[in-house]
Amino acid sequence: MKLAIARSGIVLALASLLQACGGGDGGNQPASGPRVSASATTVSVAATPGNDSPIAMVTLTVTNPPAAGLFVEGSYSTLGIDRIEFVNSSDTQGILHIVFRLPGSLQNDTYTDSIQLRVCTEQPCVTEIAGSPINVTTSYVVSGNGTSTVTIDRSSIQIGANTDEAFSRTDGVFLTISPTPISGIYVQTSHTSNGIQDVTSQVLAAGASADVDITFWSAQSLGFGTYTDTITITVCYDSSCVRQVQGSPFTVSTMLSVGTAPEPGVTPLTVASRVALPHNIIDAEFSKALNKIVMVGSYPASALYVYDVATGAEQQQSLNKLPTAVSVSPDGLTAAVGHDALITVVDLATVGQPGAPAPILLNVSADVFDLVLDGRGSVHAFPRVDQWVQPHSIDIATNTEQLGSYPLRAGSHARLHPSADFIYTADNGLSPSDIQKWDITSGVATLLYDSPYHGDYGMCGDLWFNESGTTIYTPCGNTFRSNTVQAQDMIYSGALQLSPSGPTALYGWRIRFLSQSAAQTEIALIEDELYQCEIVPSAGPCYEHLAFYESDFLNRLAVYALGPVTVNDLAYSQHGLFVFYDAVGTNKYLLSRLDGIPNPDAQYYLSVVP
Q1: N or C: which end of the chain has fewer CB within 10 A?
Q2: Number of domains in the chain
Q3: Could you tell me which residues are beta bridge partners of residue 494?
Q4: SS3 of 116-140
Q5: What is the CATH number of the domain that holds 204?
Q6: Full strand arrangement of the beta sheet holding 303-308
Q7: In angstroms, what CA-CA distances link 76 with 5, 38, 42, 133, 428?
Q8: Parent domain of 227
Q9: Are 41 and 64 part of one and the same domain?
Q10: How many angstroms separate the CA atoms of 443 and 343, rounded?
């Protein structure tokens, strides 16, 4: 037999030439005519996803084939059939191979098809021989979910990068398929593109495993910030992904944190030690009497924390509501915590001890933005919201509230003067900004007066005192005298030299937090670039410094860059929050936060600065 191909009908068609090779006597036709028969006219097969395509065979037998040969034309439906092939096996036989579709490309069902074969003495087929046409009916049962299962090695990826990196970082996930499906596997992916440039997949080990490789955009092209994406990975038995392997699909979350590279030209800060705090920090102050840092946070729960800088031990007091601010009394033994419509007063000396007294809960008709525990038996709360508000003074013994004598801007910061007789406040959101003085000796905040300046010197929304209370420091670096005589009070006395504004420091540098040690006659402060670090963080890079000054004449002694901190081989931007001197001024304690780190238990740090 010889094979010839023809087309017939509107579906796929097959034609073969069956020709006798040396049949008959001297090349004469046999006396009787040719006849064709099939070994079967019904075919049944079954498969499950993951199996290879089933193949069935039907043998065609021709008796008395003519010397000129025969032609076979075929047509078939394709519900379950992929294709048919005709193979000559001898002078009088041919085998019809019926190749069914991959079971993984079909839903579970029974697929019935029809094949018609016409055998003729000419092409195109006009005169059929005896036994023609041959009709074959096929039944193809696809069932089950497949026996293979796919697993993934992880569902999240965190990458840290520095803004000066021009190269693209890569990472990936690994898929394992067991047992290996005979039909092989196909992997499809889709993804968002905030930080991801491309995702590719490669099937390995004949379908037993696969790699999904992720390429991120370069940190230099993205700029400072955190970029989160989601990748969907689908593992299938066929390229059209009609049937998925058990365990599929997978969702992988990615986070690319682009932080600040070490600042060029500035000596990086070295620390004696650094420890991760298992909680966040909303506000903090220092108790010199206890030589402990007092902090409030909301993670893992609302609580007040007392950290002993000498031993590294930390105790905590649970709080009933989310804390917003903390104030330590002048004697360092008590703290007041602000909340929305609540103030909690805590005995610091007994926090964490068995039988410690329960905190005192005070009512206040305000969402507390800042507060001052005055050591005279009152707490003075400064509201967060509304435009013009009055201070709220609460008597601790009676839990009674009185409003202050005059309104101030909501969101104003407040500091207790070291004499404990006065509170100084700094307004926010006003131009020009100003500072005010309040008398609290009566238990109620009574406004005395504001500064004599209105735009002459920047106040910048916050203030700090030196330990003696004679100097007021503001975030813009301007300093003012403090005095009981109004004519000499809040009078400009000089300025701290902050870092010079460069082409990236659009709004200049600002003081984020400041502490002064009388014992060391020294100032320690955290400064940052206002625009990149606070107004538009995505404009970065955000550079921050820990700077030291001689406090009598404000001479700048040293400045150090707060560079990235490496955790698990990834660098994360560090932002300074607070800096405190210990009780004798020997050591400094820096509280900082890492941006973009996924583990909240490794986000906040306490560093000892010698």
Answers
A1: C
A2: 2
A3: 479
A4: EEEEECCCCCCCECECCCEEEEEEE
A5: 2.60.40.2910
A6: 283-287, 292-297, 303-308, 314-318
A7: 15, 16, 14, 13, 82
A8: 149-259
A9: yes
A10: 16
Q: Which of 215, 244, 259 is the last residue of a domain?
A: 259
Instruction: Identify whether the C-beta of residue 198 lies closer than 8 Å to the C-beta of residue 118.
Output: no
Examine the domain organization and report whether 27 and 136 are in the same domain. yes
Give the whole-angstrom CA distance, residue 1 versus residue 15.
Answer: 12
- Kindly give, in sequence order, each residue whose CB lies less than 8 Å from that of residue 32, ignoring residues fewer than 6 positions away: 63, 64
E strand or H helix at 389? strand 388-389
Domain end call among 224, 259, 294: 259
- Say how far apart CA 315 and CA 292 lie, in whole Å: 10
What is the model's pLDDT at position 19? 40
Mean pLDDT of successive 10-residue stretches along the chain, which has 610 residues: 32 37 35 88 96 95 89 93 89 92 95 95 89 97 94 92 84 95 93 97 90 95 89 95 96 88 90 97 98 98 97 97 98 98 98 95 98 97 95 98 96 98 94 95 98 93 97 97 97 96 71 97 95 76 92 97 86 92 95 90 96
Residue 496 lies in a domain: no
State how far the Cα of 104 lies from the Cα of 86, in Å rounded to an integer: 25
The verdict on 132 and 158 lying in the same domain is: no
Name the percent of the chain in helix, strand, coil, to the closest 5: 5, 50, 45
